[in-house]
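BUG: 3D viewer hangs when loading the predicted structure for this chain

Environment: internal workstation, default settings.
Expected: structure renders.
Actual: progress bar stalls at 90%.

Input used:
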Amino acid sequence: MSFAASFAASSALAGALAPSANAASARRRAARVGREIRIGVIGCGGRGSGAAGNALEASPDARIVALGDLFPDKIDRALAGLASFGERSAVPAAQRFVGLDAYQGVLAVPMEYVILATPPGFRPTHFAAAVAAGRNAFIEKPVAVDPTGIRTMLAAANEVDAKGLKVAAGTQRRHEWSYLEAMQRIRDGAIGRVVAARVFWNMGSLWHRAPDAATTDVENQVRNWLYHTWLSGDHIVEQHVHNIDVANWAFGAHPVRCIAVGGRQQRTDTVNFGHVYDHFAVDFEYAPLSEAGAEIPRSALSMARQQDGTAGRVEEIIHGTEGMARLSSGSARLTGKSPWTFKGPNNNPYVQEHIDLQKAITDSTALNETRTVAESTMSAIMGRMAAYTGAELTWDEALNDPLNLMPPGLELGPLPQAPVAIPGQAKPA
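Structure tokens produced before the viewer hung:
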């Protein structure tokens, strides 16, 4: 599905979700089908167990039938967290899988779809295996940490289409009513032609886990995965991808070039906070518009930081030739020639992702969000590569770069921590 087709599909969903819709009607959208919707989960940490709960909330027919994780304690914690769903989350011991190959065990269990929610560095391998096994999938964002992984995702997207599989992604703004209605209005010309965007995820620090001297380097890094680029992609990829995705959605395209800055000002402790940056700023250039024989440049300013004691800001501002849109979770406002404010009620987009996927499966309708989330993830990766190296990059240069951050022959053993990237000196990462 092209970006334009994806935009049209999202806009069609926006039309189906009238502003008067409410949370109860959202739950009714997942029709009873008289049989279980069997779901497997690969990656049972906070996001994986959270997504499993969202899937169970999406339909009373949903049931978790398999769990897989590198660590048994993660599975135990997920089962405890899902206990309120009773038998629908009671996974038999024979269908709980542990280790680096746990994903293979999960995919061998009969199911309607699999949730992929490990640290993102593993996503391309797991998704390619899921598609090869003929599994529908919910893929948490981001879907890769390097260009090699993105190329794997894009190749798998073609196979999804060929097999008629259904895939939803964890870019939940594309399932949130306030965003869907605002984007429909933008597409209908409410702010004129989209020419610029400013997108932000500025906040304080997140959790971290100190290394345990009694365990291996790989286990310590996986348990502290936010702070290692081979696992998270750095926070511009792991978190700020949401806002970059909204810019791409508004433009109906991915950027064609970028230049960036970034670094570490608070994260000077490499023992606990690895080698990732704590701030980024990227200037993304998009293909220009052609109008009356002239070209209108288009660009997006992206800003992300995780620094305690600093001003927080998580929103997207879309500039058009005749107005502006200001968007954040649960809030949308358009100014200019067609003023409008979203008045809700809004839905829970984390549940809606699974409602939409489950309905696509049970109704046999098309759904493949792989390409849009892969292109937004690649946009964020390109921004990180530009910041780490200090280079100005084109889309083609970044996408075709041979960079592969996954350690070869990965096993639970020694793994030196990557150095902090120094612009002007660093190799692409």
